[in-house]
Design brief:
Blueprint lengths: L1 H12 L2 H40 L2 E3 L14 E9 L2 E9 L19 E4 L1 H9 L10 E5 L11 E6 L9 E6 L11 H27 L3 H13 L4 H37 L15 H22 L1 H5 L1 H5 L12 H19 L7 H37 L3 H12 L1 H32 L5 E7 L5 H8 L4 E9 L14 E4 L2 H7 L2 E3 L7 E5 L12 E7 L4 E7 L4 E5 L10 E5 L9 E2 L2 E8 L2 H14 L5 E3 L4 H39 L1 H9 L4 H38 L9 H20 L16
Helix pairs in contact: 1-6, 2-4, 2-6, 2-7, 2-17, 4-13, 4-17, 5-6, 6-7, 10-11, 10-19, 11-12, 11-13, 11-19, 12-19, 13-17, 13-19, 13-20, 19-20
Length: 762
């Protein structure tokens, strides 16, 4: 306790410069704690939104045997359609004789013809009246915040008649223990956590360590003096730790206050692709404890470690002994991580992609962590080796001065360059995550297909759907049924109910199509191993009251077709059945109506609006277009963008703090060089070279291993893209920008006015 009080007394009574340094440590620590709180708050934000989604899920009324009880209970069903890249959810409710509580956000269940819309949807309906076709009724109110996952969510509760919800579910209450469609799926959330840890937490650890070691040389000399005056070795370390812990503690409190202000600002402005309520960003007790205890604990260990040299060899510190050369053990984690990533890159390049995702899911992240640690630990040795070689061979005075300084102070290089080097490394990793997410949900087809079950709509609705404006074509798909009186067929068959003209509008090319009789459809790109001529299959037809059986035999005549290059409209084999061969007044029972249009956003939106007007409660499946995945990717991109911004701020702040602190520490040497006749231009050139050279040494391996980390991540992701050359120019531009910023930032660090008295001070 005595040493801790001594450390605080030295802090308060050691002059204006030390108090300014302490204030800078507090401000830097608060920035780091604010960034840490933002990262740790992300899971809580998503959990809060998922909790509101779960609270509005219907609970089906069932009897003791598990069957649904439809008598008396309200009926409900929901439909989720894309509106651009955003899901639009319509919840249809038909009232019953039993009274139940309304879902969260509503004061009462909507009656037939009433529509309760979310505020964002209400504004959208005012801007685009055509969208109202999807909602049969008039607006009667807005949905409250407790019933919405996000402020910008597009949700509507629509009241309809019970006859319109023949396939609805009886609901007895609202609220389940889970969200069927979470904001971010658990597997993707794990990826987000890992990436955010690399993008933010690694540079943040470096930044907090830099802030805890401000004026390290001056403090080390002061601690060495205390050690020579009789203070014990552990006491010397505790004196230094007291100052760093006090700064980290005040910084943690200030950082939490900064986070509260940032949370309000983000909730008001929003992020691209993501909005939230202020209460969603409320920090949990665990996060507060981590910030208030974890950061001072890190400062304690950093303070004790930085005082170890002064406590062990005080005379060497006071006399300015030459530092020991950096250890080569830092190359061990770097070599281990690069070895693992090399194996995955070679496996991907040779086509032997690993199938054991359980091993890969832990091995590749571990390798990436080892590489990040190795980059930090090996940087002093790499920079020192380069400095020795250049200093021996160069004839330039500024370059020689810079290289000799880097050679004698390798620890200073670690503080100055590490943050920016890690930033470039994790930027490549983040790029790999974005590539994988984009490939998983990208819609590249030039046509869009919509599937609607015919048994859920009436004949007038079917005719209205088939005549929607903007459609290329339409057809029906039937799947064969098994007839127990005959032997089990080897496979099922698909019948395409369409004319040759319709067939030509849905595929790229057709060869040998003749109207008026069944034909054997075969994709030219498929091998001959499916249906055989003469095989018979049964299809069910119905008129709403009775069911009839239609027997089709695979004909001998084949029709070759080619699917579009970027889409698969039809399976490899099918039976083409002309509509004229269907019995009159008989509709298809087990069939799907397929609508086809162009895939641009305007056409897709127009077709979906038309479907909503013709058959509002019908379930529509836009094939190869997962709007939920698109929204999830938007959320992940928003958080990754925030992470990259935080990483950039932290990396630049760590550089500015460390470079400025190092320049202040070098004032006695600069004063001595000035007295010897060195020009200001020479000193500034030396300062720039002293900062830029370790950056270049660190950025080159960071770019290489960062690209390897990205490729390894893509290989284990199982996606179609394993190598992305398009991102290399971006990374090179980022690295060049980092070097330019570092060089420009180093220019004013060698001031014009040098006090010669600095060379007489301790």
């Amino acid at each position: 306790m005595r040493e801790l009080l001594l450390g605080l007394r030295l802090l308060l009574g050691s002059g204006r410069g030390n108090r300014a340094r302490f204030a800078l440590m507090v401000v830097g620590g608060s920035l780091g704690v604010c960034c840490l709180a933002m990262v740790l708050a992300i899971p809580g934000i998503l959990e809060s939104q998922d909790a509101r989604i779960a609270a509005r899920q219907p609970v089906i009324a069932r009897d003791s045997s598990g069957r649904a009880i439809r008598d008396g209970f309200p009926l409900t069903t929901d439909r989720t359609d894309p509106y651009g890249a955003v899901p639009l959810t319509r919840v249809f409710i038909a009232g019953g004789t039993r009274e139940i509580e309304p879902p969260p956000g509503l004061v009462a269940l909507p009656r037939e013809g009433q529509v309760f819309a979310s505020p964002a949807l209400h504004r959208l309906l005012g801007a685009e009246p055509a969208l109202a076709q999807r909602f049969p009724g008039k607006e009667a109110g807005l949905i409250g915040a407790e019933g919405l996952a996000r402020p910008d969510e597009l949700v509507a509760y629509v009241g309809v008649s019970r006859s319109a919800l023949s396939d609805g579910y009886p609901v007895k209450q609202w609220g389940t223990g889970y969200a069927p469609n979470p904001t971010v799926k658990p597997a993707t959330l794990d990826i987000l956590r890992f990436t955010m840890a690399g993008v933010v937490l690694l540079p943040l650890t470096v930044f907090l360590s830099v802030c805890a070691r401000l004026s390290a040389a001056e403090r080390t000399r002061r601690l060495a003096a205390l050690r020579l005056l009789g203070l014990s070795r552990k006491g010397t370390q505790r004196v230094n730790a007291a100052e760093t812990v006090a700064a980290a503690g005040l910084g943690a409190v200030l950082g939490l206050a900064e986070y509260k202000a940032v949370n309000q600002l983000v909730s008001w402005i929003g992020l691209p692709g993501f909005r939230m309520y202020p209460s969603d960003g409320r920090l949990s007790a665990t996060t507060v404890v981590v910030c208030l205890v974890g950061c001072p604990a890190l400062a304690w260990f950093v303070g004790r470690a930085s005082a170890r040299k002064a406590a062990a060899s005080p005379l060497a510190v006071r006399r300015g002994a030459v530092e020991k050369p950096p250890s080569k053990w830092g190359f061990v984690p770097l070599a281990a991580g690069v070895g693992v990533m090399t194996g995955y890159c070679v496996a991907g390049a040779t086509g032997h992609v690993p199938t054991s995702t359980v091993l890969s899911s832990s091995l590749v992240p571990s390798a990436i962590g080892l590489v990040g640690l190795g980059l930090v630990l090996s940087l002093p040795a790499l920079s020192g080796s380069l400095a020795r070689r250049v200093a021996r061979s160069t004839e330039s005075l500024p370059l020689g001065l810079a290289m000799r300084r880097n050679e004698t102070e390798p620890g200073g290089v670690l503080r100055v360059a590490t943050g920016l080097v890690l930033l470039v490394f994790v930027a490549s990793l983040a790029q790999g995550v974005l590539i994988q997410l984009n490939e998983a949900s990208r819609h590249t087809s030039s046509v869009q297909r919509y599937d609607i079950m015919l048994e859920k709509i009436g004949e007038p609705q079917q005719r209205a759907l088939e005549s929607l404006p903007g459609l290329r074509t339409h057809f029906a798909l039937m799947t064969s049924a098994y007839d127990g009186d005959e032997p089990m067929p080897r496979s099922t068959a698909t019948a395409v109910v369409a004319t040759c003209a319709q067939l030509r509008r849905m595929v790229r090319s057709v060869e040998g199509c003749v109207d008026g009789r069944p034909l054997w459809l075969r994709d030219s790109a498929q091998m001959e191993d499916g249906l055989e001529a003469g095989d018979s299959f049964h299809f069910l037809l119905g008129d709403g009251r009775h069911t009839r059986d239609l027997k089709l035999t695979v004909p001998d005549q084949k029709v070759r077709f080619h699917n579009p290059v970027d889409s698969e409209m039809l399976d490899g084999e099918a039976i083409l059945l002309p509509p004229s061969m269907l019995p009159r007044n008989v509709r298809l029972t087990q069939a799907t109506l397929v609508l086809v249009s162009d895939s641009d956003d305007v056409t897709v939106r127009r077709v979906l609006d038309g479907i909503g007007a013709a058959a509002p409660t019908a379930g529509v499946v836009p094939q190869a277009f997962d709007v939920t995945a698109l929204q999830q990717n938007g959320v992940v991109k928003a958080f990754l963008t925030v992470g990259m911004i935080l990483g950039l701020v932290i990396g630049v702040a760590a550089y500015l703090v460390a470079a400025t602190d190092r320049a202040v520490e070098r004032r006695p040497q600069v004063a001595a060089l000035t007295l010897l006749g060195a020009r200001t231009r020479t000193l500034r050139a030396a300062q720039v070279a002293q900062v830029v050279s370790p950056l270049v040494v660190g950025l080159v391996p960071a770019l290489v291993v960062g690209k390897m980390a990205e490729s390894s991540y893509l290989v284990i992701g199982g996606g179609p893209v394993l190598w992305d050359g398009a991102g290399v120019p971006v990374l090179l531009a980022c690295a060049l920008g980092v070097v330019i910023v570092a060089a420009v930032g180093a220019l004013p660090l060698s001031g014009r006015r040098i006090d010669p008295e600095l060379i007489r001070r301790d």
